[in-house]
Write a structure and sequence with these properties.
The complex is a heterodimer of chains A (about 290) and B (about 475). Chain A has 14 helices and no strands. Chain A has about 290 residues and is mostly helical. Chain A starts with a helix and ends with a helix. The N terminus of chain A is likely disordered. Chain B is α/β, with parallel strands linked by helices and about 475 residues long. In chain B, the strands form three sheets. In chain B, strands 1, 2, 3, 6, 11, 12 and 13 form a seven-stranded mixed beta sheet that branches. Chain B has a four-stranded mixed beta sheet with strand order 8-9-7-10. In chain B, strand 4 and strand 5 form a beta hairpin. The mean pLDDT of chain B is about 90. The chains are: A mainly alpha (about 290), B alpha/beta (about 475). Chains A and B meet through helix 2 and helix 13 of A and helix 1, helix 3, helix 4, helix 19 and helix 20 of B.
Chain lengths: ~290, ~475
């Protein structure tokens, strides 16, 4: 029986050219509209953007803008800090929400709320809370006998506020992903570990993290790509203020393109970030494979 | 089985046919619609009051009826309309008429320079006898592609810097709140607002502990910042550009004036008379802070602040808010008011340019335009003498609008620098003065360093506009 099956599998399949042609045409017919959309809405704009970005003068112009280098740094800080802190906290918190207890289930439900709140009112509320003159944060500080602080008026704290909001907003989503990841780890591994007498930290080091490693890396890369393109938080929270010192590439590109009418500068700004974005995507695809 | 085979053969052709129809469909629709009425697409800035939009909608409908044409008019707020017009001009898929409050500094100079706006000299010549001259001049822009100066925008209404203050707060501080009694010499004027803050804070720390005397917008996010800065720069006798569009900011006299102006802004901030968050304010934030009574006074380039309370709080409008003009210069003399004039543009790619000009002329007809501007409740002052002489703008019972009328009709006015050279529109968009203020206030630069950086940037921008 096995031998017969092997023979059947090994036999070359006879492909009728007419039938192959018919099937291919049918497939192309169905995929055609989608391919056309992909071509016009994705490939063509990217190719056109790269074509526009070939002009070297753009880069000398945008690099001569005093805020451009600072914006690059802001982007690195925003993405680097926000993604890493968020992912670390998500990994830690996922352990808490993975506990099978009623309180844990209630807490995880509440914890998801920031993710469900629409961005705009959330950011505005955060901005008002941090207002130096009448914000609630300074009010609490004053009531406790401390001096208030102009949070959004200093670059480090304004950027930190945007990062804190980003973490607050997106932490629940990534925590949920890690909870799902933890639940897919076979319980037998932990049982075997318990028989061997492993301590909780050892369980994390030798079972949980190795099993979550792939998921963790994919989440980090995906989050980096999302955060790099995050426009709304900075735009609404600081608008680049004080003195255009808190822009990130996404808000600066918007400013160049839609406020200054310099589409080439906007393209140049995105192209500056393109190698890093492509690198993330490339690593991501390799990892998934 | 046979039916499935037939379907399999037909499917690609059906799909190809659908695709083909999708691609050529719009063209066929165009052919089918060739016999229809001409259509005018108008993008108009959404007004602050519904009466403005309703009025303009009625004007558009009347124009369509009288001329047997179709007018498609849409109203959009300026923050969205500005980017929309810029995108349309870049993509060359344009409306026939566009009017946005940001056009004067963000759109018209740059796109006239690039040759993307229609020449409207014929229209301006027709309207010339009615125009306030300083307003009309702002439509005179340079087209680099044709290497000529001409009228590329139709100025219609304007704003200039005034000051609003809470009379009741001034009174509570023990001073006479009558607008005629507010000190109007430079030094005394600013000392007065400081005194009001100090007195109120001392009188009732719990209530006024966080009240500020001066609501001076100092942010790189707000256009108000450069209104304020360049208006007071004139008070310090400084110039950035010469009338022929050359950068003169580096000349010793001008550099000194710029440093003095920046020092004025940074000192009132550092002394604690301006809210710290003024460095992050948007254009609406000084209005909000004033309405919340967290500042005693605020300079503002329109009378939107009392105007916002006209329908909801007549007592505040008529009795509690005062409106005055700017104090005399530090040398004791007067100085011109900068006017930001809002124009209508016709994109060069518009296929209905003649109809667009006819529409603009129709809108600007004296009676019709008077009604439209009046609906803005005095926020804008008309660019036409006949409209400005309407009793509405001179009502002695109104404490705000006649002050503005006086400013436009009886004082010297002049255009912002983008009328001298379109490159300056980029200086505004980059808000170099907001940046300079932030350098001093948050990064501890000296005023001189910040001015040198700002002026250096201006020179750099001008070099790139060759």
């Amino acid at each position: 029986m096995n031998e017969t099956a092997a023979t059947t599998l090994a036999r070359p399949v006879a492909v009728h050219p007419e039938r192959w042609m018919r099937k291919t045409l049918l497939g192309l017919g169905f995929c055609g509209p989608l391919l056309c959309l992909f071509l016009f809405l994705v490939l063509f704009p990217i190719a056109f953007m790269i074509y526009m970005g070939l002009d070297r003068d753009i880069y000398s112009d945008i690099f001569s803008d005093p805020i451009f280098i600072q914006t690059l740094w802001n982007t690195v800080i925003f993405v680097g800090v926000a993604v890493n802190v968020k992912m670390f906290l998500a990994l830690v918190l996922s352990a808490l929400f993975n506990v099978d207890h009623r309180l844990s289930r209630i807490l995880s439900g509440l914890f998801l709320l920031p993710w469900a709140i629409p961005s705009l009112p959330g950011i505005l509320a955060f901005r008002w809370m941090l207002n130096g003159q009448w914000g609630i944060v300074n009010k609490i500080l004053n009531d406790l006998g401390f001096e208030g602080y102009p949070w959004l008026v200093r670059r480090p704290t304004a950027l930190a506020a945007a990062i804190v909001y980003h973490i607050w907003k997106y932490l629940p989503f990534w925590t949920l992903i890690f909870v799902a990841g933890r639940r897919s780890i076979p319980k037998e591994l932990y049982e075997a570990g318990e028989i061997d007498g492993t301590a909780p930290l050892q369980k994390f080091r030798f079972i949980t993290f190795p099993m979550l490693r792939n998921l963790f890396m994919i989440c980090i890369l995906l989050s980096m790509v999302f955060t790099l393109g995050d426009f709304v938080i900075i735009k609404i929270m600081t608008g680049g203020a004080p003195g255009d010192s808190t822009h990130v590439l996404a808000t600066l590109a918007y400013r160049y393109t839609f406020q200054m009418g310099k589409i080439d500068w906007g393209v140049g700004t995105f192209i500056t970030a393109l190698p890093i974005t492509l690198l993330f995507i490339f690593i991501l695809i390799r990892w998934v494979k | 089985m046979k039916r499935r085979g037939v379907l399999a053969w037909r499917a690609p052709w059906i799909a190809a046919l659908c695709l083909g129809l999708a691609l050529i469909g719009p063209g066929l629709a165009g052919v089918a619609g060739a016999g229809e009425k001409p259509k005018l697409v108008v993008w108009w800035n959404k007004g602050y009051y519904k009466e403005e939009d309703e009025g303009m909608q009625k004007v558009a409908e009347a124009f369509a009826r009288e001329n047997n044409v179709e007018v498609e008019i849409t109203f959009t707020i300026q923050d969205d309309l500005g980017p929309k017009i810029i995108s349309a001009l870049i993509a060359r898929r344009v409306p026939d008429v566009a009017f946005c409050f940001f056009t004067d500094w963000q759109i018209a100079p740059k796109f006239a320079w690039e040759g993307r706006l229609a020449d409207v000299s014929d229209l301006i010549n027709d309207l010339k006898p009615r125009y306030l001259e300083s307003h009309m001049k702002t439509g005179w822009l340079f087209n680099k592609t044709e290497n000529k100066w001409s009228y590329y925008s139709v100025p219609i209404e304007a704003q200039a810097l005034g000051t609003h203050y809470w009379k009741d707060l001034v009174k509570e501080a023990g001073f006479d709140p009558d607008p005629k009694k507010i000190p109007m010499t430079w030094k005394e004027h600013w000392a007065f607002w400081k005194k009001v803050q100090d007195t109120l804070r001392k009188k009732d720390p719990a209530k006024y502990g966080k009240l500020y005397g001066i609501g001076m917008t100092s942010s790189s996010r707000a256009t108000d910042t450069f209104y304020n800065f360049e208006q007071y720069l004139l008070a310090f006798r400084g110039e950035i550009l010469s009338p022929d569009g050359k950068v003169v900011a580096t000349e010793a006299k001008n550099r000194e004036a710029i440093v003095k102006t920046l020092s004025f802004f940074t000192s009132i901030y550092k002394e604690g008379y301006v809210p710290s968050d003024a460095l992050t304010w948007t254009d609406g934030d000084n209005n909000a802070n004033f309405h919340n009574k967290t500042v005693v006074m605020t300079p503002n380039p329109s009378i939107s602040i009392p105007g916002a309370l006209f329908f909801t709080n007549k007592d505040a409008y008529y009795n509690k808010i005062g409106t005055i003009l700017q104090p005399a210069a530090p040398d004791g003399k007067g100085y011109p008011y900068l006017v930001s004039v809002k124009p209508i543009i016709i994109p060069k790619d518009s296929k209905e340019q003649a109809l667009a000009k006819k529409f603009i002329k129709y809108v600007l007809e004296t009676k019709r335009f008077t009604e439209y501007v009046k609906a803005s409740n005095g926020r804008w002052f008309p660019s036409f003498k006949d409209v400005g002489s309407d009793p509405f703008f001179n009502d002695p019972k109104d404490p705000h609008i006649p002050v503005v009328t006086n400013q436009f009709m009886k004082h010297e006015t002049r255009a912002f620098y983008y009328s001298y050279h379109p490159a300056y529109s980029q200086v505004y968009t980059e808000n170099v003065w907001g940046k300079a203020m932030s350098r001093v206030m948050t990064e501890k630069w000296s005023n001189e360093q910040a001015v040198d950086e700002a002026v250096g940037r201006i020179e750099q921008i001008f070099k790139s506009w060759k």
